Amino acid sequence: MTTRAVHATYATQPPAPGPGTGRRILRAVAIAATVPYLGLKTAWLAGSQIGIPAGSALSEPSLFFTAANSVTLAMDACVILLVLVLTRPWGMRIPSWLLTVPVFFATGLLAPILLGYPGQLLIRLLGLGAEPAAASGQRPFLEPWVFHVVYTGFTVQGLALAGLFVPYARERWGSRRQGAPGAGISPDGVRGRLPSSTGVAAAAAAAAGLAVAVVQAYWAFGGTAGLGAGRAAVYSAEAGVATAVHGVCALAAGAGAVLLARGGRLGARGRRWALGAAWIGSGAALSWGTWVLIAALGPELDGGEGPGAVLLLTYAGQMITGLLSAAVLVRFLTAAHVE
């Protein structure tokens, strides 16, 4: 009788629900959006010159460019794996840290593109965009259409991933976030007080983020000091939009860290805003700050001068802001016992 009862129990358990029509469509869209970038990177690694104008630094074989293309190819290929994790039943069994780490960096890399690329298109539509590199006689390193194809793909990827992650997170962690029995979350969102070191890290993130935001706002609105003569000559309104977005992300990282350090003094809505600001801001500042700092150590793609001390300090400031804010974010989530 016991055996029959056990078998009956397992027999009546419903199977893990599959994704609905909307999520299946988003999955297909996200995977399709990776094709242009993956295709270009594969072609370049195979020796193709598609999208690379004559005289570009990319047309010359280089270990640095080969390594960079290989790494970025692998990064975008991971989007396909991430999409499958978010839409397949086995994705619910993936350890939380193994999912949240790539989602964090994917958010950080894609959020500034989602925020900045539409603004850049608007600038160009209004006739305020320019081709300063060509006007100054510097060698372009990619055909203009490459940027539109790639950034359109990134924009679609970001929107699709956001549409897939929200229902996934709701299904997997929704009850814990609401303080369900056994979740280990106190009514005010955290268990106990956060250590004083968290407040110090949050204050440092806010200070660094404010400094970075001020410098980038100055450049975004036409300032050229600290850019160097070569970069100032080719700076455009479109570049200003991207710079402004990174400044806002650095500011959001610092503000989110300070709010999270308040811990239990935040209400439910305040926690959601603080988590969103810290997650997106720290991800963007850490990901892009690290990326541009590494890229600054490589050869100049347009044949111009290398970045000066102010630019390098700004890149480092972005990275440090993101790192400090991410540390506060992790500490808050750990205190809240979010799986």
UniProtKB/TrEMBL annotation:
Keywords: Membrane, Transmembrane, Transmembrane helix. The chain crosses the membrane at residues 63-85, 97-117, 145-168, 200-221, 241-261, 273-297, 309-333. The keyword Membrane applies. This is Uncharacterized protein. It comes from Streptomyces subrutilus.
